Every structure is written in structure tokens, then in C-alpha cells.
Amino acid sequence: MPETRRRAEIIGWGMYAPERVVTNDDLAALMDTTDDWIRTRTGIERRHIAAEHQATAAMAIEAARAALAVADADPRDIDLVIVGTMTPDTWMPSTACAVQNALGALHAGAVDLNAGCSGFVYALTMAHQAILSGEHELVLVVGADTMSRIVNQEDRATAVLFGDGAGAVLLRAGEGSAGVLATLLGSDGSGADLLAVPAGGSALPASAETVAQGLHYLSMDGRQVFRFAARIVPRAIEQVLERAGLTLDEVDWIIPHQANLRIIEAAAKRLQVEESRFCVNVNEYGNTSAASVPIALCEAVERGQIQPGQQLVLVGFGAGLTWAAAALRWGPSVQEAPAVFYRRWLRWLIYRWAELHTRWLRFARSRAGRAWGGAQERWRRMRRKRE
Ligand code: UT7
């Protein structure tokens, strides 16, 4: 008998990685490091870095539009947009609002979620709960970070590790056996100092002094974070599987946060699972923070690695300290559907309309817009008088 309970099912996925690629050798030419050190200590070979004009929202929008195209969905049907990020375009408003607006997702609420590198899996969990509540049918979840903007490019301990990018999934309420099976969230705020951007918040507002001291950059105790990750990743996987009523043998793919190949190898060893069951792309992108899990998921789906009916575990960890895991069954209905021609055009039109509409609203709210509105009003009054 097929199960009939409400589930959040992934029906679309998309990713964006900036064009500019920085190799280990490029970095070795700028600082005291080597390709060999970076490869052997982290597994990273290159990373993609955002262009000057790009920031988190721009990448998130690209990934979100790709996810909508895969699902062949209408952005106006989205109920909620959640963006997992710790590098929003601005502290306020949220990046999610920029994504919602650029998609023309007129009926959607929008919110950012900061759980460090666990941001995407946290956001996925929130989206799953929003759908289970019965309040939402279609939820867009994005993980996006522009780490190059908060990393000190002269600090070899961190500059070599991070990259920029975005990944997105579209979740729809379904009643089949596919979808999110169980989730797990964790936090240990005692580790706040291990991975942080000390200045720029309400505790230590940005000032000339904080900038002079480099406190607006990410600081990390790499060894401690490594120890935490090596311990928490296998534990989170085991716990979420227990909640889902699955054993490790029943899991086809594990998609971990891509911070360091050695962390993934340590987790595989501790769980006694072949490393080949972990989806890994840290070599290509480095640590893209909240974007790393959805980018790895997208690539695995697009390679044809993940097949309908297979069971996956997504697991993230990062600043906070935080960790999160989700067990899910990939659905038969999530195979890339051929997009209906007119719907592709409709989406294109909605995106252009969203752009123009935003410009118009901003104009109308500006002084010039108010003056224009006043002139129109006066003209209308004059006409009424003449009549
Ligand atoms: O998204 C979650 C956040 N981050 C993480 O998950 C990161 C977790 N931590 C790690 O991945 C690793 O701890 C690192 C890759 C950051 C560092 O690797 P490690 O094996 O723990 O190296 P280490 O920090 O113990 O440093 C070893 C040596 C040090 O030199 P000394 O003190 O032994 O002389 C460092 O100064 O390597 C030196 N070092 C470098 N050498 C060349 C540090 N960075 C570099 C570098 N190139 N880029």
C-alpha cells in the first residue's frame, strides 16, 4: 500500500557558480601557500568567485530561476521564499525579499535564515515544516553565500578555503512516498567564537577601528571546527536516520557540507560507509557555505547519479555552532519534465514585468514620482471643474 501522508517533495533544483575561477596556483602567486598544501589538507583545487557587480541575491536569483525552470512552475504560485545565507546583500532588508521580487513571486512571504554553513539544510527543514503545517503548498529554498566578501584575501588560513555560489530547490506539498522523511537541527552557541565575523553587528558596530583591526573579516579556529565537524557529521546522520526509521544501508547517497575532503573521509570512516556514497565536489567549488549542499545535490541529480526512489541524507554544519540533517526519498515525479513552451515564455515575461514594475514603483515612490502624481491629480481636478 503506498503511503498517503502530506510530505514536502523536491520538484525543482538549480544552482549558480560565478564564471571567475581561482585556482590554488593563482592563490599561491598571491600569498604564502602552495597547491600541494591546499589539496592535501582540504581537497580543494579551485573555487568560483563572484564578479564585482554580483552579490548573494544575484546568485540566488539565478539558482532560483533554474529551479523554477526544472519544475516548470509559475513563480506566482510560490507561497514562501527562504534564503539560507550569512552574507546577505545588506543587513536589511533581507536577501529573500530581493529574490521574491526578482522572481515576480507576488504571493510569497520572504525571509532570510542565518545558520552559517548549515543554512540550506536549516531552511529546508523550515520549508518542510511550513508545508506539513498545511499553510503552504509551494516553497522555494535557497542556499547562497558570497564568502569572498567576508574573507580576508590576505589571510592564507581562510582565503584558500572559501568560494561563492548559490543552490535552490522548490518544494511542493505531495502525498506520495517521496519527499522529506525526517529532519534534525542542532546548535551549540558555546562555540560562537570558533567561527565568526566579530564586527558589523549590534554588539560591535562597524567603525574605522574595527575595519583597521580587520574585525569585519571571518575568523576561524580551523582545528576546533574540524574536530567539531568530524564528530557531529556522523552523529547527525545517524540521528536523522533513526528519526526516519532507516538504516545506513538503506541510504543511497549522503550529501554533506563541502568544507574539507578530510572531514568527509573522517565521517565515512566513523560510519563505516564507502566514501563513494558521499557526493563530493569540494575540489571544484571550495566551501561555498550555505550553497554547498544544494550545489552538490544539483550536480548529483544532473549527472544522473540520484535516481527516483533513492534515499538521501543531506547534512550541514557551521558557524553558531550549528548542524542540520535531512533524510529524503527522491521522487518519481521529480524527473526533469519537458518545459511547456508557453510557460517558459510566461516565466520570462513575469521576470521582465517584475523588473519594470519595481522600477515603476520606485519611481512612483520617489520625489519625482510624487510630483508627477501631484500634477496628474491637479490635471484631473481641472478637468472635473471644466465638466
Ligand atoms: O564551513 C565550516 C567551516 N570551516 C571548516 O569546516 C574548516 C574546518 N577546518 C579545516 O578544514 C582545517 O582545520 C584547515 C584546512 C582550516 C586547516 O588544516 P589543518 O590541517 O587543521 O592545519 P592547521 O590549522 O593545523 O595548520 C597547519 C600548518 C600551520 O603551520 P604551523 O603552525 O604548523 O607551522 C599553518 O600556519 O599549516 C599552516 N597553514 C598553511 N600553510 C600553507 C595554514 N594555512 C595554510 C595555507 N598554506 N593556506
Briefly summarize what is shown.
The chain has about 375 residues and is an alpha/beta fold.
Give structural notes.
This protein is α/β, with parallel strands linked by helices. It is built from 13 helices and 13 strands. The chain is 40% helix and 21% strand. The strands form 4 sheets. Strands 1-7-6-4-5 form a 5-stranded mixed beta sheet, sandwiched between helices. Strands 8-13-12-11 form a 4-stranded mixed beta sheet, sandwiched between helices. Helix 3 (56-71) crosses helix 4, helix 8 crosses helix 9 and helix 12 packs across helix 13. The longest helix has 25 residues, at 341-365. The relative contact order is 0.17. It binds oxa(dethia)-CoA. The site of oxa(dethia)-CoA has 20 residues, from helix 2, helix 6 and helix 8.
Are there runs of 5+ residues with pLDDT below 50, and where?
none
> How is the largest sheet built, in terms of strand order?
1-7-6-4-5
Largest sheet: 5 strands, mixed
- Whole-number radius of gyration? 22 Å
| CATH homologous superfamily classification of the largest domain | Thiolase/Chalcone synthase
Q: How many strand units?
A: 13
- Say what the CATH topology of the largest domain is: Peroxisomal Thiolase, Chain A, domain 1
Helix-strand sequence? EEHHEHEHEHEHEEEHEHEHHHEEHH
What are the key terms here?
globular; single chain; 387 residues; alpha/beta; binds oxa(dethia)-CoA; five-stranded mixed sheet; 40% helix; four-stranded mixed sheet; Peroxisomal Thiolase, Chain A, domain 1; 13 strands; 13 helices
Topology record:
Layout: E1 7-16, E2 20-23, H1 24-28, H2 35-42, E3 46-49, H3 56-71, E4 80-84, H4 95-103, E5 109-113, H5 119-132, E6 138-146, H6 156-159, E7 164-174, E8 179-187, E9 195-196, H7 208-212, E10 219-220, H8 222-244, E11 253-256, H9 261-271, H10 282-285, H11 292-302, E12 311-318, E13 322-329, H12 341-365, H13 367-386
Parallel strand pairs: 4-5, 4-6, 11-12
Antiparallel strand pairs: 1-7, 2-3, 6-7, 8-13, 9-10, 12-13
Bound molecules: oxa(dethia)-CoA (UT7).
Oxa(dethia)-CoA (UT7) binds near residues 157, 160, 226, 260 and 287.
